[in-house]
Amino acid sequence: MQKLRSFLAKYGFSVIVFPNSNQSLIKNVTVKGRVFFIAVLLYSTLIFLLVSLFYTFTPAKYLLLQESDILKVKGFGEFQSLNDKINILVIEVEKLKKTNQNLKNAIYLGDSTLIKKLPTEKKEVDGSIWKVFQELFFSQSEPSIIFRKPINGFISRGFSADKGHFGTDFSVKIGTPIYSAANGYVIFSDYTINDGYMLIIAHADEYLTVYKHCDQLIKSTREFVTQGELIALSGNTGKLTTGPHLHFEIWKNGFVVNPEKYFANY
Question: What is the DSSP letter of 7?
Fold first, then answer.
């Protein structure tokens, strides 16, 4: 390094300019070795930066790379994109699993802190088969709770358990207010694949009311609601929806019943 510095300081370089048109304008410019070295270094650095930028931000790199290298670069980009999509899908699946588990707990187990416990005393049953048959099929007992209609709309499809339709459909516009059919606690308020945004309320005497295909859920799980209180807005969500409507169900002791028989204003 010391020898290089001595060489650059001792020797200089001359640049002679020869114009094509007029030979009398020949110029001789003398440049010191150190200045010449620095100028060449800066020029080389500038050229290197320009080439690097051109190679990085233009398709020119594909002209210089071999075909196998191009496939590797493109393959890595596709793999990264696919990996990101898989990660998003895994997160969505976990959310659906959690939602479905909460729904199962709400329907089959309920919430022990919200739903009234079953009576401990057993009911005396007559030993006659005919009495049991009458109790099962000809009982005219009145419902212990009077429900109000959850929404103002036209009933487009009624209750038909034998055909797999366990509730009553109200044909309404999207965004129509939905009201609680009776006092109770919200035990489920979330999105499901088949029924869209759905809400389940637990009432006294082991009753449950179900509100499906909502557009927005206003009440959350574990909230207390009173009869006629706004709980959601109707919609058209879920795979099983057939158009904008509210599907409403009433369950008693784990068995579905006809909601139209329980409405006070039907």
Answer: H
